[in-house]
Amino acid sequence: MEKFEGYIFTALCSTNFLVSCLLFSRVTREQREPYMDEIFHIPQAQKYCHGKFNEWDPMITTLPGLYLISVGVIKPVVWLADLTGEVVCSTAMLRFINLLFNCGNLYLLYLLICKLHLREKTRTTSRRVLSALSLSTFPVLYFFNFLYYTDAGSTFFILFTYLMTLYGCHKASALLGICSVFFRQTNIIWVAFCAGTLVAAKMDEAWRVEHTKKRDEKSPPSQVPLSFSGAKKIILFTVEFLTSPSHVKAVLLVAWPYAVVGICFLLFVVLNDGIVVGDRTSHEACLNFPQLFYFFSFTLFFSVPVSLCYHRALRFLQALKKQPLFFLFVTGVSLLLVWKFTFVHRYLLADNRHFPFYVWKNLFQRHELVRFLLIPAYIFAGWNFLDSFKSRSLFWSLAFLACLLAATVPQKLLEFRYFIVPYLMYRLHMPLPSLPRLIVEFLLYTAVNAATIYIFITKTFHWPDSTATQRFMW
């Protein structure tokens, strides 16, 4: 980091923390009592604060990473400041932990951008800094910095894990991956992604060697051939690679720390008789393939300022013209997936405090044909998503897509919080956008954040059978 860039980034970090503290103060004044999932998280953290580590709320479905970190931070502060009484491990103090994670996420995002875009060194200082600031204010993630949820800490440890992978510190990465799993069990998918990038690098190297020998210039190793013959070629190569002892040995020599984490996780699943701890009735896995379409649409909306342009839309139309049979096949498969694999969680239909409730009610429940009429939009959003990865290697893209499928499809509940990590990974690996586009992106995120926090604070309501104040949120 150059000296001038360091000053700019430090100033932005300070400003971001100050603004976040002011918002945190307002949110906490308006909502002093635990809200939504906080009614489970906060009492459990307070039990840990009082040394009651053998007590567990069976309604909590995640491992105790958030509570352990909270106690590890708060206890030394309490001892140094000689604090006593109700302020110790209060709702506000526990929520403040996520503001610290917010600062960490901003710094990690900046480091990841610098590492992933090393080739773009000239005249990119402002773009790197603004990209990091913009992504740290990504609306769904930023909102939960003010409540005691697992999202900020979960994102922090996943980003830290991936950063260590990029720097080649695989043992440290594996340990951080374990920490991320303690925040949310499904983070094992992104630990697997870190290992997958190492496998992909070996496969890309072998693919380039093979195509250099064959002098096959029609299938560039950096792109995924969008054709049936191309798919067949990739599958055959993958099977050959994974059944080659020399290739498997080369991969294991590098990726063994992640393999150890994977084995430990499988042992946990066997002993726990499943991934979920506590209440499992609301977290049943299923093949909800339209979740992938919802994610593509979600991604298109939040990345419009940096991903969409006239030339990309024109390329999509040209692709439709050149490969009509392929897109017809994709449309047919999409119709089948939407028809046979759409699942609706009871929370989505019953809990009117969440934004997805209104998306489903006002869009998908308008008419039973709406979900099918949206398929062309899904296909464009998916194509736009894949087109953003043109600069990435073939097998890296496949590894990312495999992890994306694993992270979204098994989820029965449409919950935007589940899209945070895959969206950030997508956005981080896009080519570094121009400064005007980044400014528009930051303004979009700021506007959405302002609107959601304003609605949360001011637009309260009550249920007929309850006197408690209810608020709208992600």
From TrEMBL:
Pathway stated in the Swiss-Prot or TrEMBL entry: Protein modification; protein glycosylation
Subcellular location(s) of the protein: Endoplasmic reticulum membrane
InterPro entries listed in its UniProt record: Alg10 (IPR016900)
Gene Ontology terms describing biological process: dolichol-linked oligosaccharide biosynthetic process
Keyword Membrane included in the entry's annotation: yes
Enzyme class, first EC level, given as a word: transferase
The protein's name: Dol-P-Glc:Glc(2)Man(9)GlcNAc(2)-PP-Dol alpha-1,2-glucosyltransferase
Taxonomic lineage of the native organism: Eukaryota, Metazoa, Chordata, Craniata, Vertebrata
